[in-house]
Amino acid sequence: MPEHRQSLNQSIVLMGVSGSGKSTVGKLLSTKTGALFFDGDDFHPKENIRKMASGTPLNDEDRRGWLETLRDLLNDHDQSIIIACSALKQSYRDILTSGNIKPRFVYLQGSRELLEERAHARSGQEDHFMPANLLDSQLDTLEQPSSEALTISIELAPEQITETILAS
């Protein structure tokens, strides 16, 4: 018997630093809801990817065009979508919400130790260009989202995180 799909009533941006599980949770949410999932990393320009792969953190100027592309992606769909995007600063989240679509932010929060463990576990994977040594720069840049964002601990299993998002 096929699993019953829940529908999303708004688009979601899964935010947090590298290693927080944004892509994993996004894919699970997509499977459970049928909503389209987009990994924000896939929309970085080549210059950003080269910069991060070399171990150099992105600055606000580097991120601006990328964030505008993701904002446009939110606005170009007639249905709810899910985007995995670090959205580290409030000003970045402001860019993402500057269009007609106002997504719900879900902040995947974890301890530095757990994030570092996860980042090291995936370093060297061909499909990931974010080296583990950039975690500190992301944590330094991170501005905790407002109480409007749903904050979920990444100590929960991805399936539990997904169920928590759907229940909210």
Protein described:
- Helix 1 (about 20-35) crosses helix 7.
- This protein is α/β, with parallel strands linked by helices and about 170 residues long.
- It has helices spanning about 20-35, 45-55, 60-75, 90-95, 110-120, 135-140, 160-165; strands spanning about 10-15, 35-40, 80-85, 105-110, 150-155.
- It has a five-stranded parallel beta sheet with strand order 2-3-1-4-5, covered by helices on one side.
- About 40% of the residues lie in helices and about 15% in strands.
- The mean pLDDT is about 90.
Tally the beta strands. 5
The stretches of 5 or more residues where confidence is low (pLDDT under 50) are: none
CATH superfamily: P-loop containing nucleotide triphosphate hydrolases
Calculate the mean pLDDT score and round it.
89
| Shape category | globular
Q: What is the CATH fold-level name?
A: Rossmann fold
Task: Give me some keywords for this one.
alpha/beta, globular, Rossmann fold, 168 residues, 42% helix, 5-stranded parallel β-sheet
What's the layout of helices and strands?
Layout: E1 12-15, H1 22-33, E2 36-39, H2 46-53, H3 60-75, E3 81-84, H4 90-96, E4 104-109, H5 112-122, H6 135-141, E5 150-153, H7 158-167
Parallel strand pairs: 1-3, 1-4, 2-3, 4-5
Helix pairs in contact: 1-7
Short note summarizing the structure:
With 168 residues, the chain is α/β, with parallel strands linked by helices. Helices cover 42% and strands 13% of the residues.
